[in-house]
Amino acid sequence: MPTPPKTTHTQQMPHKRKRHDPKPIWAYREGEELPPELKQQQQEQRQQTRPPPLPVQAQAQPGSQAQPRPPPRPTPIVERNGHPPSETDASLQLPSGHELQGFERPVSDAPQVYNDVSHKVCVFVWDNAVANELVRTAIADPKVQLEVEARWGQIVERTTDRRIRGMWDNECVLKTENLDVKFESTMTVQQHKRMNLYLNSQVQMSQAPGAARPAIGYQHTYETDIFYELDQQGFSSLNPIVQRLIGQTGGRQRVRLTRDKNTGEVLRAIIKHRIANLEISSPNTEWDYRIGINLEIEFPGPIESLQLAVEPGKTAESMQRQKDRMSYSWLGAYQVDLTQVTQGASKNHELELELDAGVLVREAHKARRKEVSKFESLVNGMMNNLRVLSREITGPGA
């Protein structure tokens, strides 16, 4: 690992919001008193969630023979996942989600009640990506990109090499720093095939003529990853803020060079630096989740000056990763990658969801300025997608 520049003191990455940085509206609990400016924002959000009145000419008259349009018949998949596509797709249209009506309305008459797990993820993303001054400063450099991704996999005990089980019986955030566990992002060949068929069917339905849902884009790519050791000279060429972030965590850093497998064209050369992870156990489905916040740092120097990374017992060729990836994107905010990774004699299947960092940062800045923001809706949408795909693989009656 290159030696970071010496400093008189070590600045720790902030993990908590500074006192002068006001809480966004979604961070308040039900019944907690809001400051005047946030009360005004909440009132604006309520007005936006109410449907506009029908034009006079469109209102039904007494005795009219017009029949209401029948709702679309849900498919077994929709019923299994627990919510039709229209509700998921609308998550970005409503600033604070679905306004509660009827029996759902609590005694406090709050228009929404947050989901505790999703709220915890909101706070995690906010503290580590939005309120983290070093991260905010780093991503001001166009060569440094924020990555917020979620992976499907299993939280495994290191001692038994089995998926962790406990006294909990439903989805919850784990304090894994107190546990001897690891996260394995993998799936079986059969699960990979089933997920491929399911996602392809969603693309077809979304792009069908007259479909009342946002279209899902599809892309199939073949790439090769080659790894190089980051030396002192390469480390010194990085942004000083990036050097500080890397120096705080220590450890070995590598540069990942990605080429198009068919043309040999260099697509990118980056250093992926981890900021924080959050593990969520989902014992009622086949998979748990890991929410990761990372920086993808474009390597500015010549790649030829670096030494190939070769681990003991491996060759340079066996260190290469061949990626056969199918990507599904929608709403300009989410992308699901279904990837088959071959490295040497091993083959792994992975499923991950990436939240568009540009959209996330933009909505976070709105929240910091006390404007109407969809920050919480973006994170809630990410969690909904994790749950839907997990339930699709798990199936009914599991």
TrEMBL record:
Cofactor: Mg(2+)
Enzyme nomenclature, EC number: 3.6.1.74
Keyword annotations of the record: Hydrolase, mRNA capping, mRNA processing, Nucleus
GO biological process, one term: 7-methylguanosine mRNA capping
GO molecular function terms noted in the UniProt entry: mRNA 5'-triphosphate monophosphatase activity; polynucleotide 5'-phosphatase activity
Polar residues composition bias: residue spans: 1-13
Reaction catalysis annotation: a 5'-end triphospho-ribonucleoside in mRNA + H2O = a 5'-end diphospho-ribonucleoside in mRNA + phosphate + H(+)
CDD domains reported for this sequence: CYTH-like_mRNA_RTPase
Top-level taxon of the source organism: Eukaryota
Subcellular location per the Swiss-Prot or TrEMBL entry: Nucleus
Boundaries of every mRNA triphosphatase Cet1-like domain copy: 115-355
EC class (word): hydrolase
Biased amino acid composition, Low complexity: 37-49, 56-67
Function per UniProt: First step of mRNA capping. Converts the 5'-triphosphate end of a nascent mRNA chain into a diphosphate end.
Entry similarity comment: Belongs to the fungal TPase family.
Name of this protein: mRNA-capping enzyme subunit beta
Source organism: Clathrospora elynae
